[in-house]
Amino acid sequence: METNPIKILIADDEPDIIEIISFHLNKAGYEVETAKDGSEAIEKAKQFNPDCIILDIMMPKRNGFEVCEFLRSNKQFDKTLIVLLTALNDEASHIKGLELGGDDFINKPISPKVLVSRISALFRRIQPATSETKTLQIKDLIIDSEQYKTILNGVVHVLAKKEFELLYLLAAQPGRVFLRNEILSQVWGNDVIVGDRTIDVHIRKIRVKLGIECITTVKGVGYKFDY
Amino acid sequence: METNPIKILIADDEPDIIEIISFHLNKAGYEVETAKDGSEAIEKAKQFNPDCIILDIMMPKRNGFEVCEFLRSNKQFDKTLIVLLTALNDEASHIKGLELGGDDFINKPISPKVLVSRISALFRRIQPATSETKTLQIKDLIIDSEQYKTILNGVVHVLAKKEFELLYLLAAQPGRVFLRNEILSQVWGNDVIVGDRTIDVHIRKIRVKLGIECITTVKGVGYKFDY
DNA sequence: AAATCTAGTTAACAATAAATTAATATTATA
DNA sequence: TATAATATTAATTTATTGTTAACTAGATTT
To answer: Can you say how many angstroms the Cα of residue B25 is from the centroid of all Cα atoms in its chain?
Structure first.
């Protein structure tokens, strides 16, 4: 079982806030990524796939509400905690934030220690649900074998069974070259006999469906995942 | 064991607060019980077995911290949400409350609407994790295993036993692909032998009865709930 | 008890998607 | 450049699932 650190994305346009919150979250053992506005928050979220996103309401480009709404409409972020921060201390925003799918709503000025406490409290509560060992993630590419789907930059790509299994095999060990024989025995099984071009065709379909260069041909040897 | 309307216990020594919070929680569909001090809160908690307990910090007999600590040391209240209320707006109490196992910490004066919002947000997040919940809700689809019926958009759809159990199995873990074998052993049992098309026919009946696309076929693998 | 339901299953066939092949083009490298 | 390996494309085959209707065994009603 992999024990990756819990990942948190902070989006705020005030560098001071980002810095102090990052510092405290890091100290508490979280892996932190940052964004300075709403658009960057969405971009980073897709790539970083955080377990929790802290959103300032008042941000340039897209405000916290808009980002929250977007995240909640995207299946990739189903299980992602969203914490909203704001200097506005009004009831309506508070309720709106929670109704848009926020998990916590905190008024500024906020003590970093309290923020960290609140976030741990949230994680403590959802802990049992967060134990995904069957999911690979390489940058903005998520390969989820429990759901049999791949998400690239927030977009779901449905691969057929063999395609998926082939991609999963390669991506589980990025950089390692798999011989054609290895691929055949792992994905097709030892007793199955298929023609020369079968692997190539499947590789091609993966390349076309994902639209990125993530599988490299090592001529005369085999293929490797390289992204 | 949880029963259907979500139960909330409020403990506060100020009758006015109790009254106004009860009113709003009731209106939001929760079943409410009250206690006027810490000792009564513990007693009532044992009897009433609430899903959520709202505790004022400053109470006679035993204060909110003490009650929280007691509840958290008792397995009966493992999954019970604890919300702490206080007029003291100091960082140390806030952190202490969360560290003692509180799920939320709210400063008075509190708007009842905000309180209700925060509590629904907590439940929304917790629901999927609680395996003992008998009623699933995914968007406008409610799957009630006590009554063996599903409600979609307010309209009741009666599924037969096998249909219901199949839907329930899938919907309990949305997105997860269930292999045909898993479905067979979970719904039909390990020793039952049925033909190839039995699952398909049941899936079809669910699809027809509900009239929505909520079960996705993953060809060569199985089925998943996806709505 | 006979008739009528109902859920569950099966079987035959249709429809669909996936996997494979085959033919040809392209590429890398000895 | 020659050639072996891989890429590409479309056609074909195969596997899997969808659909329908009929059948069976219990339950329920008359």
So the answer is: 15
Could you report how far apart the first and last alpha carbons of chain A are, in Å? 24
CATH topology of domain B135-225: Arc Repressor Mutant, subunit A (1.10.10)
Residue given tokens 């390289």 in the structure block: A226
- Find chain B residues with C-beta within 8 A of A128's C-beta: 129
The shortest C-alpha distance from B97 to chain A (Å) reads: 10
User: Which nt sits closest to B223, CA to C1'?
Assistant: D17
E strand segments, A23-166: 31-35, 52-56, 81-86, 104-107, 135-138, 141-144, 149-152, 155-157
Superfamily of domain A7-129: Response regulator (3.40.50.2300)
pLDDT one-digit tens code per residue, B103-158 = 999 988 888 999 999 999 998 887 654 445 578 888 899 998 877 889 999 899 99
Q: pLDDT per residue over A171-193, tens digit each?
A: 999 999 999 999 999 999 888 88
Whether residue A95 and residue B114 make contact (CB cut-off 8 A), yes or no, is yes
